[in-house]
Amino acid sequence: MPSRTLSALALLFFLSFSASAQNTLQDPSSYLGYELGSKFSRHADVVGYFEHVAESSDRVQIEHYGKTNEGRPLMVAFVSSPENMTRLDEIRNDNLRLAGLEDGKLKGDPPTIVWLSYNVHGNESNSTEASMSTLFALVNPGAESSAWLENTVVVLDPAINPDGRDRYANWYNMMVGMEMNVSKDAVEHAEPWPGGRTNHYYFDLNRDWSWQTQVETRQRMQLYKKWMPHVHVDFHEQGINSPYYFAPAAEPVHENVTAWQRELEEIIGRNNARHFDREGWLYFTKQSFDILYPGYGDSYPMFNGAVGMTYEQAGGGGAGLGVLTVEGDTLTLLDRLTHHTAAGLSTIEATSLHQEKVVSEFRTYFEQAISNPPGQHKAYVIHKDSPGDRVAALTAHLDDLGLDYGRATSGSRVQGLNYRTSATGRFQVQEGDLVIPASQPRAVLANVLFSPQTAMTDSLTYDITAWALPWVYDVNALASNQDVEFGPWSTTKAESKNHAEAPYAYVSSWDDAGDAAFLSALLKAGFKVRFASKPFSLHGSQFAAGSLIITRTNNEKKGASLHTELAELAGTYNQVVTGLATGFVDSGSDLGSSDVRFLDAPRVAMPFGAGTSSSAVGQVWHWFDQIIDYPLTRFPVERFSSLELDKYDVLVLPTAATPILNEAGLKKLSSWIRSGGRLVATGSGASALAGKTGFDLTMKPSKKVPDTTAVAVARNKRYEDRSRDRAPSSNPGAIYRVDVDSSHPLGFGFGDTSFVLRMGSTKPAIMKGSNSWNVGVVTDGGRVSGHTGFKAEQQIEESLAFGEQSIGSGSVIYLMDNPLYRGFWTSGRMLFANAVFFVGQ
Asked: Pairing state of beta strands 604-608 and 650-653?
C-alpha cells in the first residue's frame, strides 16, 4: 500500500499548490481577500468559498440541506476522488445496504465515509475557518491527500450553527481595533449576552442530536440518515489554557459502544498524537469528555454505527484573534485553526489507511443489531390507552430517528417491566399497541433511548443520566423480555363527530402538549373558549378535566362559519372535536355551571436579556414561538422597574433575574400578583423565591444522612479524589416519579402519577401555607432512572415538583424542574401550558 502520511507543520493548506492546482482554484486567503486566521469570516463568505471550490474542482460537490431560523443556508461539501464523485449516489446506496437500511446487492467497493462537523457552538469559531483550509488541502490533485480520497468520501459541514456563529463573528469584528488586543481585560474578549454559542432560540445544538427539536438539527439529520458515516468528528473549543483534546473518550462510556468502536478511536487518536508529537503541540485524551448522553455529536453517531469523536481546541468566545494565556504565550486564531486542520486531516488519513476494516466492521455492527440486539429487552410496547396525541408525537420522533415500529397484531402476555410503576412481572399486550422491536438495524439507538436504566462505569459524568422516551412522553409502556408480533403501523386521522345538526357546544380533549397549539389557534382565530374544571360525561363519552369547550353562545359572531372554521382547525391540528346536542350532562357539571370556566386569552410577558439565563428564556421563547404559536412579549430585564405590569396577565420567570428579585422588584411583583397577576416561575426562577416574604415556598431542611465512611476521613482524604468527594451530594440528572393531584388545573391532562427530570440545580423545596397546593410531589423512593448521589436523593424525595400558591386575587405557580428543558421533555410542555392558560382562571 502506498504511503499516505500527512505533511508536517505546513499541513497542506499553507503550501502554494500553484504548480499542480487547477488554474481557477483559489486558496481561502486569496478568495476572501485576507489571510485566513487574520479575521473572522462571515457565513456568507464561507458558503461562497465552498461553492467556488466546487465550481473549480472535480473533487467537490455541494448540497444545501436547509436553512436556519434566520434564513442562513445550511450546506455540506462532498469531497472524494474524481472517480468516486461520479458515483456518489451508488456509494451512498451501497453504504445503506451495508447497514441493512436498503435492499439489494452492493454495486461496488464501498469507500469509508468520514463526516466532519464544524461550529455547532457558534462562538467556538475557529473550526469554520479550519473547514476552509481542510477543504483546500483535500482538493489539490498533487497533495498526499489525493491517495486518501481514492477509498474515502469526506463530508464537510462548515457551520452547523450559522446563526450563532455570525452573531459572534459580527460582534467581534465590530469590537476589534486595527490591532488585536491580547489582554483578557479587553472588550473584544468580553462577549455580551446571549453569546454566540447557541442558535436563534438559544438552544445548544450539541445537546439536540437525539431529540431534534431545532430546525437545524432536523434538516441535518435527514441528510445524515441518508449517508450514515463510518467516522464523525465534532469540532469544539474549550478554555484558553487547555491543551488540545481528542479521543479516546473518558469514562463513562456507554455499554453499547463496541470494542471495535473503541479500537478505532484508539487508532485515530494515536495517529493524531503522531502528528501533534511531531510539532510539539500539547494534547490530552481519555479525560473530561465521556460517551453517555445520546444528544451529542460524538455519542449519537456512536449509537448509529459510526465512531463519533469530539475534538476540543483551546479558545472559544474569549479568545478572539489572539489572547494571552496563563503561560504568557499568545494563542492566535491561526494557531487554533491550524490544530483543527491537522486533526481533521489526520482523521481522514487514519480512516483511509484502515478502509477495509472500517467498512467490514460497519457491516458487522448492523448485522449484529438484527441478529443479537443489545440489552435484555426484545421489544418496547406503548399501550394504545395512552393519549393518542402523545403516541402520534412519539411515532413522529421515531420517524425522525429512523427507528422501526409497528402495531401489535394480537394480544399476548409477556414478562417485562412497567415504566409507570417500575414493577416487573407479566403484563398484557393488546392488539393495536405500538411496538418498537429491539431487533432492527438501529437496534443500539433503540436500546439507548428506551432502556429503563443506563449502565454507568463512573458516576462522574458530563451530562444527565436518564432520558428514556416512555417517561419523556409520559405514556403507558412496558419493556418486554419477549418478542411481540407486530405488523405495519397505520396512522389514523382524527375524526370529529356531532350529536346534533347544530350542536349546542363542541368539546375537545386536553391530554397532550399538542392541545395547547390547538387552543392557541382557537384564541387567535377569535373563538371564545371555556374549559371543564371537573370531569363530565355526555352521549356515552367521558370528558376529563381540562377539556376545551366552545359553545354557540358567545361565539355568535362566527355565525354559520362556526362549524366549518372549527372543523378546519381541528383537521389542521389533528384534534377530535365532538359536537354536543345539549348542555345537560349525564354526570358532572352542566355546561352552564361555574365549573365550566371562561378562558381569558392571557397576555404573557417574560424578562429577557443580560441577567437571565439565555438557555432558560430561549426554551420559553421557542415554546411560544414554534410549538404553540402564541404571542409572548419579551421585555428587557433592566426595564422591569418601569414596566406597566397591569398590561399583562401572566409573567414567566424562567431564571433568577436580579432586577425582579431585589427588594423593590419583589414589592412590585407581589403587588401585581395580589391584584390578579399570575407568576409562572420555573427552575432557578422558582427556587429563588424560596424564603422570600409573602412566598410560601421553603427549602427542605437537610437530612442527617449516616455516612459510613466518616471514620478517619480527615486523615485518609486524598486531594486527587476531591471531585468524587462531591458525588454523594450530586445529581447530574435523573428521572423521578411524581404523585399528581389531577383535580388541580396544574394537573389537568395527567393521571395520578407523572415524571420529572430532576437535576442538581433544582433545590429541594416544599410549601406549607394554607393557600398553597403541592400539586406534584416527588414520591418516596421515586427515582426510576438515572444516577443520584445518596445524600442528594434523600433530599429530593418528598419534595415539591410543581404547585400553586394563591396570593390575593392572583397566584404563583412553582415549576421546580424546568418543564421545557432542552425542548425534549415533552410531557413538561403540557404542564407549562396548564400554568399559562388554566391556573387562576
From this structure: parallel
CA dist., res. 471 & res. 459, Å (int): 22
State the CB neighbour count (10 A cutoff) for residue 567.
15
Per-residue buried b or exposed e for 327-336, using 16+ beta carbons within 10 Å of the residue's own CB = eeeebbbbbb
Distance of alpha carbon 661 from alpha carbon 694, whole angstroms: 13
Residues pairing with 548 in the sheet: 508, 531
Any idea how long the chain is? 841
Percent helix, strand, coil in the chain, to 5, is 35, 20, 45
Distances 54 to 45, 77, 179 between C-alpha atoms, Å:
14, 8, 34
CA distance 121 to 316: 9
CA 819 to chain centre: 13
> What is the DSSP pairing of strand 231-238 with strand 112-117?
parallel
Higher pLDDT, 142 or 649: 649
Q: Under 8 Å CB-to-CB from 33, ≥6 apart: which residues?
A: none
Cα dihedral 652/657/661/663 (nearest 10): -140
Question: What pLDDT is stored for residue 710 in this prediction?
Answer: 47
What type of residue sits at position 18?
A: S
242, 413, 479 from 426: Cα distances, Å:
53, 6, 11
Do 804 and 744 meet the contact criterion of CB atoms below 8 Å apart?
Answer: yes
Q: Are 546 and 531 in contact (CB under 8 A)?
A: yes
Q: Is 652 helix (H, G, I), strand (E, B) or coil?
A: strand
List phi, psi (to 5°) of 203: -90, 140
**233 DSSP β-pair partners:** 116, 309
Structure-block grid coordinates of residue 445: 439507538
C-alpha cell at 671: 403587588
Alpha-carbon distance of 447 to 682, in angstroms, equals 31
649 φ/ψ angles, rounded to the nearest 5 degrees: -95, -35
Q: Report residue 385 as a C-alpha cell.
A: 390507552
The span from the CA of 284 to the CA of 276, in Å, is 11
pLDDT-above-90 percentage for the chain: 83
CA distance 752 to 740: 5
C-alpha 570/C-alpha 508 separation (Å) is: 9
User: Measuring CA to CA, how many Å separate 264 from each of 356, 360, 726?
Assistant: 13, 13, 34
Gap between the terminal Cα atoms of the chain: 76
Nearest to 643, CA basis, from 628, 654, 657: 657
**Angle subtended by helix axes 826-837 and 514-524, to nearest 10:** 40
Q: How far apart are CA 562 and CA 555, in angstroms?
A: 8
- DSSP 8-state assignment for residue 329: P
CB 152 within 8 A of CB 146: no
Is 639 strand, coil or helix?
Answer: helix
H helices then E strands: how many in the chain? Answer: 24, 38
Report pLDDT digits (tens) over 276-320.
Answer: 999 999 999 999 888 999 999 999 999 999 999 999 999 999 999
Report the distance separating Cα 637 and Cα 683, nearest Å. Answer: 17
pTM: 0.94
Long-range CB contact pairs, 25-30, < 8 A, 24+ = 25/53, 25/56, 25/57, 25/139, 25/140, 26/52, 26/56, 27/136, 28/129, 28/132, 28/133, 28/136
SS3 241: coil
Q: What angle, 0 to 180 degrees and rounded to 10, lies between the N-to-C axes of helices 215-227 and 88-98?
A: 90
Cα–Cα distances (Å) from 82 to 109, 150, 214, 235, 776, in that order, read: 15, 9, 35, 27, 62
> φ and ψ at 440, to 5 degrees?
-170, 165
Dump pLDDT digits (tens) for 320-339.
Answer: 999 999 999 999 999 999 99
Reading the block at residue 796, the C-alpha cell is 429530593
Q: Which three cell numbers stand for residue 108?
A: 461496488
pLDDT in tens, 113-172: 999 999 999 999 999 999 999 999 999 877 888 999 999 999 999 999 999 999 999 999
Banded model confidence at residue 648, pLDDT cuts 50, 70, 90: very high
